[in-house]
Amino acid sequence: MKPPKGIRILLVDDEPHILQFLELGLSSEGFEIKTAPDGASAVEIAPLFKPHVIILDVMMPEMDGFEAIARLKENLSYGAGIIMLTAKDEVENRVRGLTLGADDYMIKPFSFDELLARIQARLRNQFPDLLGEVVHGPFRLDDRRKEITHQDKVLELSPTEYELLKFMVMNHGIVLSKTLILDRVWGYDFGGEENIVEVYVRSLRDKLGDKEHRLIRTLRGVGYRVDLP
To answer: Which residue ranges carry the DNA-binding annotation (predicted)?
Structure first.
């Protein structure tokens, strides 16, 4: 599904071939793109360009991604979504980036389709009025009405069920751990048990008629994944 016109993405990376790859791919998807070769340039460009999503490499010369995240969060009061790009073994860096205010991360090398899914997730979470009604397979999500339709039937969902199903559908095809689900749906300060996720997933499956777990799949020891037809 092509995004509406006017969605702006800022790409920040010191590797020209990555910038070119992402710029060509995301431009063809209908996004407005600007690029920056380092954190300092991104901090200068962002207030003028006003991106909805920033895709930011961590390891860059002069001003690295961590300092850039902090500066961008200070300067962009409207809450642009920030997706970090990190190497596979940089667990501490990912934790540090999320603590500083990044919203998501991707590990290099990454799938372009997964990047698109994560961009859409950031837009839905942070700019719901921009996208309005969005269709993913048999699901129609209307964040303004807080309503999800499945196969042309409006689902009767509690507020938490709505947020959980929205998060899972918007990230369809991506494995979501219980910890990540708790952080994004219940919040970082949730003090309850992880089993609450199982309870809500069971309720969603009942309401979706997903008795065989073909729609919301369980990956034992890993998490859940929504598979769309």
So the answer is: 131-228
